[in-house]
Amino acid sequence: MQDLDHSTRDVGQEAGEDVKQSAERLHDDARAAAESVAARARDEAGQQADRARTGVASELSGIARALDTAAGELREGSPQEQVFGQVANGLSGVSDAIRDRDLADLASEVSAFARRNPLGFLGGAALAGFAATRFAKASGTPRTPADASYNAPSAQSGAPASASATTPETRPGDVTAPAVIPASHLTPGDH
């Protein structure tokens, strides 16, 4: 009977050790799989950040070239030519800085600038937001022939074609110019 108790105890201990070893292997395998997934996610995020950084640098470089070209077409020495040239040089420098530095360096520099000059940072952030909004609107859905028919006179509306030619329909968000009265219609007392 003692042998039976002793062998039962041995089998129980062996089974316990087997379960413990299996749990440790399972834990190690799960940790290795999690580390592998995390490493792949970090690599993918880094690659996407690099692509975004390169894209932003290219866009800024293109804008800088366009401003430089515009500055070259303006009268030399004019205030507009000087401003366009300075902005082009600044954007070119920013483009090179973005292209040549890694994301962590850029983030720490932006953070340091924000601490040194919070008002300038907020102004720059607002300007970047406005620029991003303008860019998003400009690169939105292009007008299609169906959109053109929105402003075209309709046979069902009963409005004569000449009425739509003088007062075009507008959509919400359209920018309209103020009415201009030709100078020939002004009399000496009108201003």
From TrEMBL:
Amino acid composition bias (Low complexity), ranges on this chain: 152-170
Domain of life: Bacteria
UniProt-annotated stretches for the region Disordered: 1-56, 139-191
Biased composition (Basic and acidic residues): 1-32, 40-53
Protein name: Nutrient deprivation-induced protein
Biological source species: Salipiger aestuarii
Organism lineage string: Bacteria, Pseudomonadati, Pseudomonadota, Alphaproteobacteria, Rhodobacterales
